[in-house]
Each structure stands twice: as C-alpha cells, then as structure tokens.
Amino acid sequence: MKKIGFLSFGHWMPSPQSETRSASDALLQSIDLAVAAEELGADGAYFRVHHFARQLASPFPLLAAVGARTSRIEIGTAVIDMRYENPLYMAEDAGSADLISGGRLQLGISRGSPEQVIDGWRYFGYQLGEGTTASDMARHHTEVFLDVLKGEGFAEPNPRPMFPNPPGALRLEPHSEGLRERIWWGSSSNATAVWAAQLGMNLQSSTLKDDENGQPFHVQQAEQIRAYREAWKAAGHQREPRVSVSRSIFALVGDQDRAYFGRGNKEADTIGFIDDTTRAIFGRSYAAEPDALVRQLAEDEAIAEADTLLLTVPNQLGVAYNAHVIESILTHVAPALGWR
C-alpha cells in the first residue's frame, strides 16, 4: 500500500445528533479535515459528489479552497457524476483548481449512482439522444472532457478579438499540464474498468460493485483490478496506472471508538439492487482492535492489488473525531500493511 487518504461524502443534517448541521458546516469542516489529515501524514483528501442531497455537491470551489490551505496532500473526488457535467466548463474549473493546488488534483469521475430525483441531469439541461442511455451520455461527456484536457487548440479564433490571440486554433484556459493523467474512473463492473484502462484513466473501485460471479466482494474487486491492469497493458500506455479502493475501517483504540463502531454489525458482505436490474455486492466494514484489523486487512485481496486506500469517514461525527480515526489507522494499522 503506497498511499492512504480519506473519502468524505460530506453529509449534513440539521439535527442535534450531528456535528455537521448545515451545508456551510460540511464545506468548512471538509477543508479543516483535509488540513488535519495533511498534518497527520495522510496522502489524500477525497470528496464524493451528490446532487439534490444534503451532501457535498459542486466540487471545484471546495477543491480550490483545500488546495489553497494545504501544500502536499493529494486532493480529489470519488466521484463526480458525469451525467450532470458540461465537460468544457468542467475542464476550466478543474484547470483552475489544479493550478491553485500546484498540480495535486486527482479527479475521480463516473457514470454515477442512482440519485435523489428521477433523471436529475434533465434539470441541468441535458437530454438523451435517440437510442442512447444516461450511461452513454456520461461516457460521451467523459470522452470530450479527456480530449480537451490534452490542451490542444480546437476553437476557431475571432478575426477581430477583444484581446490578442496566440496563432492557430484556441484551447480552453487555464490549462493545467499533466491533469489529463490524473483522471480516475469510478467503476462498478469489470467491463467499465476495461473501458477506463483503454482510455488511459486511473481506476477507482468503491465499497460496492456489480455482483458478477457470486464470489466475496474483495475477491471480485481484485479480479476487476487485474482485468483493468491487463487492459492497460494491452492498450500500450507508457505510464504506470494507479488504482484505489475504498473501505470503512475503524481501529478500536478507545471507549469512544467502541461505543460508535464496536458492535460488529457489518462484518459481512451484503447483496442488494442499486436499480431495477443491477444486482450489487456491498463490501463489509472493518472495526476491531489494531492487531485484529491488520490480520483481517491482510486477507483483503483487493487492498493487496491496489496502490491507494481511501478510508470512508463518518463526517457528521466532527473534524476532531475523524482526524482521530485517520490517525489511528496511520499509526496502528497502516505500517503493518506496508505503508511507508
């Protein structure tokens, strides 16, 4: 395991039981947690994007703010739903945030999961072409986004511009060199992992995937990663790809940890349907004393296959407790797994 970061969904709820009671709380606490994680030595701060929900949504103001407050930690998403995105405007936003952070963005994008409203992307102004699906639209937006991130000119310049232009066709600005190689695809199936490899994207695999053969979650996820690496090699890309997996992992080192997570009620994979036709397998959570955690995680085949581990954090428990969760893993568990 080369890198360990955290992944926050940025939930907020106006409830006395939540430490994150407003959208403002969610955003500002996300920045504070990223700063704390960097100070603790973590490698990444990642954020999930959901629309029409009391969670983090528009990611680029947050990413830019985190970039301005930190200096070393990777800053990313897991994932941005490409059904909702204007790929050209997104390329401008991403370029700006990446330049502010000094080239530390790691953008996870995907087709997205079922959302809070029916076909929410329609409210963002998108319509499906005849014979196409929302997944087709997401992949088309992705391909356009990847193309413009190359930084090549494509737009015909005005012969009488307001400001002088460089020669030739114009590209989007600001352009951030190298960002194209720091785009990740969040994949729930083996087929989309292979597609991501063919397009030269890194791979993010979450705590759920399509149940494709009835094997345990971590075994199926490891198979997905191996299929991705084989497709990457076959595509002839020159750089080494990166692969992340997400896990809910809690080291029980104090009474508060045991009160929150010591009941052991999610120690097995579960099966469910994320839509009318897609059977999914949801990976187990891990909560145990550090020595037991090390033994359990050493048997997780997908963690062994990946180079990056993202720890999903219960952000509504507050910045201080989540910093403790991260520190406990980095201190008591990660070294035994080969981290640093």
TrEMBL record:
Keywords: Plasmid. It comes from the Bacteria. InterPro entries: Bact_Lucif_Oxidored, Luciferase-like_dom, Luciferase-like_sf. Residues 9-257 form the Luciferase-like domain. Gene3D superfamilies: Luciferase-like domain. The keyword Transmembrane helix does not apply. One of its GO terms (cellular component) is cytosol. GO terms for molecular function: oxidoreductase activity, acting on paired donors, with incorporation or reduction of molecular oxygen. This is LLM class flavin-dependent oxidoreductase.
